Amino acid sequence: MTPKIEVNDVKKHFGTKKVLDGITLTVPKGKSLVIIGGSGTGKSVLLKCILGILTPDSGSIKIDGEEVTGIRGDARMELMRKFGMLFQGGALFDSLPVWENITFAVRPQKRLSRAQAKDLAVEKLAAVGLGADVANLSPSELSGGMQKRVALARAICANPDIIFFDEPTTGLDPIMADVINELIIDCTRKLGLTALSITHDMASASKIANQIAMLYEGKLIWQGRAQEIYHSKNAYVDQFVHGRAHGPITDKKAG
User: Fold this and answer.
1) In 3D, which of 120, 197, 128 has the Cα closest to residue 157?
2) Cβ atoms of residues 36 and 243 within 8 Å
3) What pLDDT, on a 0 to 100 scale, did the predictor assign at position 64?
4) CB contact at 8 A, 199 and 174
5) Which 3 state secondary structure label does DSSP give 129?
6) From 5, 93, 143, 230, which residue has the greatest number of CB atoms within 10 Å?
7) Topology, domain 1-82+160-167+194-255
8) Could you tell me which of 28, 16, 34, 2 has the C-alpha nearest to residue 220?
9) DSSP line for 189-239
C-alpha cells in the first residue's frame, strides 16, 4: 500500500549549519508517527518541509505517492486542503470568537454563511468535548486546556486526511495533557486520520504514537514501535527518554 507520507533522503542546510542530513521515513495511512528529539535537532524543520513551508535542499517528499517538493499555485492549495495543524500554544486569534477561529480557513473555501459556519464550529466543539456555549467566547476567556481543545477543533474542521501536532501538550499540567492525548487518539481514530507529531513529552509520545522516531544532529537515529522506545538499546534514545543528564548527548548538543 502506498504510504500516506513518504520522506526520502531529505537534506536541509541554513548557511553552514546542516539541520537535516538525509532523513528517510514513512507514515502509513491511518497511523500515528511521533518524532522526538532535543531542541535544535531538526524536528520542526522536517515538519515545515513536509508542510511545504520550507523547501528541502535535496531529497523527496511524497503525499499519497505524489511528489510535492516544490509544487506551487493551485496544486499547492489543493495539497494544503489535505492537512490539519495543531500549533504549539494553540495559535488562536485573540480578536475573533471561538467559532470564527474554528472556521477561519473553512468558511471562505466552502462559502459558508455566518450561521452555517457557527453550526459547523459547534459540531467540531462537540467532537473535542466542549459545549455550544463556548462558541461565542473569546480565546482570552478560555483556560489553557480549553484553548488546546479549540485549536484541535480548528485542526479537524476541514476533515483533513493528515493532521500535524506541534508539541500538543506544551504548557499543560499532567492531567490536562493526558486529556488532550486522549482527544487526539479519539479524533484521529474516529476520522481515520494519519498523524505526524513532534514533541519532547515522552508520556504524550508513548500514548498517541504507533511508531516513534528520534532525530539527533539532523539524522534519524532510531525508529520503532511506541512500546519499544524504553527498550531501544540505543544509548542516545535511552538517555533522552529517561531524561538523564549524563550520556552521549552532551549539554551543548542537548540544546
Assistant:
1) 120
2) no
3) 94
4) no
5) coil
6) 5
7) Rossmann fold (3.40.50)
8) 34
9) HHHT-EEEEE-S-HHHHHHH-SEEEEEETTEEEEEEEGGGGGG---HHHHH
> What sign for the dihedral angle of Cα 30, 36, 39, 40?
negative
C-alpha distances in angstroms, 12 versus 40, 56, 59? 13, 5, 9
Q: Which residues contact 80 (CB under 8 A, 6 or more apart)?
A: 52
Mean of pLDDT values over 3-30: 94
User: How far is Cα 172 from Cα 165, in angstroms, rounded to an integer?
Assistant: 15
Q: Considering the chain, what percentage of its residues have pLDDT values greater than 70?
A: 98
Cβ partners under 8 Å of residue 250, min gap 6: none
Rounded to a whole number of angstroms, the distance between the first and last alpha carbons of the chain is: 38
The model's pLDDT over 61-103, given as tens digits with 9 standing for 90+, comes to 999 999 999 888 888 888 888 999 998 877 899 999 999 999 9
The residue type at 160? P
Q: What are the φ/ψ torsions at residue 193 (nearest 5 degrees)?
A: -80, 150
Which triple of cell numbers denotes residue 116? 452555517
For 188, the grid coordinates are 484521529
Map residue 157 onto helix, strand or coil.
coil
Q: Give how far Cα 136 sits from Cα of 95, 125, 133, 158, Å.
A: 12, 12, 6, 20
Torsion 39-146-197-106 (CA) sign: negative
Beta partners for residue 26, in sequence order: 6
